[in-house]
Amino acid sequence: MNPTSEQIKQLLSDADHPLGVKELLRLAGLHPGQQTELKRTLREMVRGGQILKEGKRFRVEEPRHVSAASRPHGGPRGHEAPGQLEGVLHVHRDGYGFVHPLSGEGDNVFLPPSEAARALDNDRVLVEVMGRPGRLEGRLVRVMERRRQLVVGTYEERGGRHAAVVPLDASLQGPIRVPRTQMARDGDLVKVRLGVGSQILDAEEGLFGEVAGSLGKRGDPSAEVLSIAYGQGFNDEFPPEVMDEADRVGPAVSEEEARGESRKDLRALPLITIDGEDARDFDDAVYAEPQGNGWRLVVAIADVTHYVREGMALDAEALRRATSVYLPDRVLPMLPERLSNGICSLRPEEDRLCMVADMVFDARAHLRSYELYPGVMRSVARCTYNEVQAVLDGEDVPHRNHLRPQFERLLALSRALRKMRQGRGAIDFDLPEHKVVMGEEGQPERMEKRERKESHRLIEECMLAANEAVAKFFQDEELPSVYRFHGEPDEQKLASFATLAQAYGFKLRMDDGLSSKDLNAFVSQLEGHPEQRALNQLLLRSMMQAVYSSTQVGHYGLAAEHYLHFTSPIRRYPDLLVHRLLKAHWVRRGKQRSAVMVEREEERLEAMAEQSSERERAAMLVEREVISFYATLLMKDRVGEEFDATVSSVTDFGFFVELDTEHVEGLVKTDALGFGGRLDKLLHALVYPDGRRIRVGQKCRVRLVSVSTERRQMDFEPLELDSQPVTRPEPRPRRPWEREELPHVAEPPRHRRFVREGQREEAAPSRFEKRRPTPREAPRSPAAEEPRRRRFVVRPALAPETPPEAEAPSRWQPPAREPDEGASGPDAPAKSPHPGFDRIRALAAQSHRAAQSPRMAPAHPREEPSPEHWAQRSARKAAPSGKKTQRSEAPAGKRKGAPGGGKPSAPKARGKFKPGRRSR
After folding, report:
1. What is the DSSP string of 265-278?
2. Are residue 677 and residue 546 in the same domain, yes or no?
3. I want to staple 246 with a disulfide (CB 3.0 to 4.6 A). Which of 87, 135, 336, 370 is the partner?
4. Are residues 558 and 506 part of one domain?
5. Which stretches are tagged as biased composition: Basic residues (predicted)?
6. Is the pLDDT of residue 79 over 50?
7. Which of 735, 753, 762, 794 is nearest to 913 (CA)?
8. Which residue, 200, 198, 199, 158, is CA-closest to 178?
């Protein structure tokens, strides 16, 4: 009887090391013949994610290493062992990868291709770290969480029961094996649900999964957009258990819910929502009224925690996503649409549960008092930014004119709040954002800048005020929470930026440090300057990125002592978490908790803060990649056109330009302006040997050279810089120590030069350089028929061309003959591919002519020996042993080979033939 999956899991849990198949057979008491069934059970458990496979061994995942997103209630993350690091893996298209620490601090860890191939891009992994700081290298220990669940690729039918899906994402190695399906045809784009679970991958086995749906034929932009989102771990669908919980939520608020949890009834208060034209989830409503010498501001936020309770599948999935992703053609929500666009959305004229921040400000917009409480509300109007701005500008908007007093009070309060924040040193970069305007058929029509109007600032100031008030409450009550942290910028980076600003004519003093108030004053100087946007971006890059943390430090950019996110629980998990912590505090009614409970709570919150920060960065990357993809789609048919542009950034491999009208960005490579360009990091400029400098903010005219939608990149060539034409660069001269490419036609050997230890040395010609050309490499001529190097061959004795009485040459040479181009047969010119064959062919032709001649004589005629000669030789032979006699005394007629005494012997050869040696 085969063991069940639970029994196998128990055996693996009890073991102190991963077990192989034979060990499991022995521990389970199975017969060796049951090994096949055991392997099948193990394979199914691995695919289901119940156990993990490491090489040829199996183990269970330890609970302390489970990520916060996959734990019930988001429990604390296990600390890494010494020498280990937990982070997110990013795989390069060339196979290697880097692990970025979850905390965002410290050096990235390099993974060679052999290690990076054992996990997927964007997996949360644990690695063993080796090496030294600055050159850290890691070995994969385990996969903590498999972020990627879906893949987009091309369906290819193959023989047998399985088909293959070639992924669009280049970071995935090899095709994905899937069962054949009727949902797609060969060549269709499909959505694949991976079945590899969270185990370490086997490079030989490859990826496998199942087709989850068809996306149509290739060329559909929406499929490419989904591929980008899937690559960062975001999905457009929810697990079945999550959808089941969402379906059980009622469509409306009941009176019992409205009266529960000590809620205040705000349905009589004229709250309004102000959002974008295409918004569907309305999570905040505002109301303002004068009170004494100041204002009262009510900010009501959707109460998502009433429907997403701790421990539910809805909550676990929301933590895994941590944020909604807003794309030009769709939204990938954090919560199912039944909640985000339904019961949690503050629709007009519908009762909704809410969490309220009720604040009172003085005439200078300083917070005097605040109150936080749950409530029930009913929005009176769903307004858009354009409508509010039109009313504020004095235009006639029939269905919104009655709200003009409300808009004007909100505007006055927002201006006072903004002035107060700027007075304490808040930095307002005011960087414009780009948005893609889509057409009716799903194709992009144009790219335009997203304009910030007074109506946008109005809502921003109200939300900032509510976030600060809630953060102050947690700080005053000394409650653990998830704060929004923005630290002070690095002094070295700021010093580099100050040097750059001075080159542009701006002063940024750093004598006694640099406060946010000083930076805000500097940003104010840039208003209206041509380089305003470029310098603002460079300053922003020199500052730290805001993250979530369980530690309250403050927000440098906002110059706020206390700050967190409270106002968007539909699309941000930290906001939902803050709501839950508020309710938990109200339930305890001020009861104090032990230090141990507080410490555990902070560990749990820190793990969820890290998860939220990482998912926020991933969402920003998706949005940026999608905009770049749509930009290449807009420009792919405009190759060769010229555009006015502005230099937006400079790197060591070129500079990026933004087109003034189309608002898309592309690259001009360094070599486009000539050789020798280098990056001056201090002045952030590209400097050339002829004195030309490329700086951010510089005006230019460029021509579009190439567009790649796969790499999402556009290349330009410069035509004008500062209204001056750009001369075409000359080819870069070859340096004397660089190796030259060998030509196909062999030439006289040339010495290669190279540098060793700072000294130039000479190298002998290589074997390839000094070889003789083949007939295909060099044209043949009559002179080329005769080989330059003579090889020793065995030659037959041929009749001489000269008369017998002529003196024989000291060394035999073939007769010189002009080849007969029209001849055939033996007299035809040699056309062999090897010179040695030509020699043999020439000798054979000579032998053929000699055979046809009436004279057949030895090649080297000699005089016939006389009878006296043979008599002397016979006498010498008959002499006694050990005595030498004169030839004249030797008896004749006794020698072998003498006339009448035998056959004459042939003359002896002068030397023995040795292959490879010339005859002497």
Report:
1. E-TTS--EEEE-TT
2. no
3. 336
4. yes
5. 909-920
6. no
7. 794
8. 158
Read off the pTM.
0.68
Check if the beta carbon of residue 781 is closer than 8 Å to that of residue 788: no
pLDDT in tens, 311-337: 999 999 999 999 999 998 899 999 999
Tokens matching residue 384: 């858009």
594 shares its domain with 699: no
Percent of the chain residues past pLDDT 90, beyond the cut: 31
pLDDT tens digit sequence for 768-780: 444 555 555 555 5
Beta strands in 63-206, from DSSP E residues, in sequence order: 84-91, 97-101, 109-111, 124-132, 135-145, 150-157, 162-167, 176-179, 189-194
Q: H or E element: which one contains 302?
A: strand 294-302
Q: How many CB atoms lie within 10 A of CB 88?
A: 22
| 708 falls within a domain | yes
**Which residues on neighbouring strands pair with residue 799, listed in sequence order?**
none
> Does the pLDDT value for residue 48 go beyond 80?
no
**Contact present, 294 and 363 (Cβ < 8 Å):** yes
Query: Is the domain of 499 the same as that of 596?
Result: yes
Q: Decide: helix, strand or coil at residue 165.
A: strand
pLDDT, tens digit, 9 for 90 and up, residues 139-189: 888 888 888 888 888 888 887 788 888 888 877 777 888 888 888 888 888
State whether 600 and 489 are in the same domain: yes
Determine the residue type at 431: L
Its sign, for the CA torsion 391, 397, 403, 404, is positive
Who's near 124: CB < 8 A, 6+ residues apart?
67, 86, 87, 88, 89, 102, 143, 144, 145, 147
Q: Are the C-beta atoms of residues 574 and 549 closer than 8 Å to each other?
A: no
* Spatial contact of 578 and 470, defined as CB atoms under 8 Å apart: yes
Residue 783 has phi, psi (to 5 degrees) of -70, -30
Q: What is the CATH number of the domain that holds 210?
A: 2.40.50.700
Contacts of 1 (CB under 8 A, 6+ apart): none
3-state SS, residue 713: strand
CA distance 62 to 73: 17
**Coil/strand/helix, residue 450:** strand
DSSP string, 840-856: HHHHHHHHHHHHHSS--
In terms of domains, do 499 and 617 share one? yes
* The predicted structure's pLDDT at residue 300: 97
- Backbone dihedral region of 430: left (phi > 0), alpha (psi from -120 to 50 degrees) or beta? left
Q: How far apart are CA 4 and CA 150, in angstroms?
A: 29
